[in-house]
Amino acid sequence: MSTDDYPVDMSVKPDVKAFFDPATNTISYVVKDPASSACAVVDSVMDIDYAAGRITYDHADEIIAYIEQNGLKLEWLIETHVHADHLSAAPYIQGKLGGQLGIGDKITVVQDTFGKVFNEGTEFQRDGSQFDRLFADGDTYKIGGMTGFAMYTPGHTPACMVHVIGAAAFVGDTLFMPDGGSARADFPGGDAGTLYDSIQKVLSLPDDMRLFMCHDYGPNGRDIKWETTVGDEKKHNIHVGGGKTREEFIKFRTERDAELDMPKLIIPSLQVNMRAGKLPPADETGKRFLKVPVNGL
């Protein structure tokens, strides 16, 4: 596929600063327009001590400090999907620095599914209105003079999107580093075949496209990494590289997912992230609670 087929100027090389959160193995990013002070934050993290029920913002404060110290203007907070392994700090950062909060428009499917799982009732809006922008496949947006576009990549969840910003793509959980493979596809609304198709969309980008991961777990004891290229993934990805077929991927992914435990933070993460990073509403005493659905996941 020619770069002319994409609605972004792939000669633009954004400045990318990564922030690794060791508690959740998540990588957040500040993505800056090289020609201005405008930037975006991708997949931020809110800290939680789940055993104590305590929320803090050390990771988000580090991102805020970086933006302020470098005189940047935050224009977008992007969520690649509704994360099941960490809580988003997007509204906290937005409250400090402004910007618009965006996610894929299939967030409504996730909200409907997990609104039922957590018995949220009619007061919980399932229309995505908690976010400022719902991206449809192929939608574009501006970070200063730089254009980003949203590529719909379901399979891990129904609302996953890869964001292509100039010569960089932020893949969420659609792909991991080549020696990490791919994300699971057994959450409600996930599908291994759909995930394979989405990965092929990502791999149709130019071979030199920089790819930035949302997670890395340092397989086989290697150092944590978060950047690779389309070409490297096509050649070396252990789940889809080297011409592996859709049928081979579905068989492997289905068998592998059956062996995996649920993420440790899935219960608080889903309740918070389907609300755009906001905590559930307070009760009449002003206290907030997270629910544990028994045998619900």
Automatic annotation (TrEMBL):
For this UniProt entry, the molecular function terms from Gene Ontology, in alphabetical order, are: metal ion binding; sulfur dioxygenase activity
Entry keywords, A to Z: Metal-binding
Cited CDD domains = POD-like_MBL-fold (cd07724)
Residues in Metallo-beta-lactamase domain copies: 25-215
Biological process terms in GO annotation? glutathione metabolic process; hydrogen sulfide metabolic process
**Which InterPro entries is this protein grouped with?**
Metallo-B-lactamas (IPR001279), Mito_Persulfide_Diox (IPR051682), POD-like_MBL-fold (IPR044528), RibonucZ/Hydroxyglut_hydro (IPR036866)
- A Pfam family of this chain: Lactamase_B
Q: PANTHER family, per this entry? A: PERSULFIDE DIOXYGENASE ETHE1, PERSULFIDE DIOXYGENASE ETHE1, MITOCHONDRIAL
Protein name, as recorded: MBL fold metallo-hydrolase
Which organism does this sequence originate in?
Roseibium aggregatum
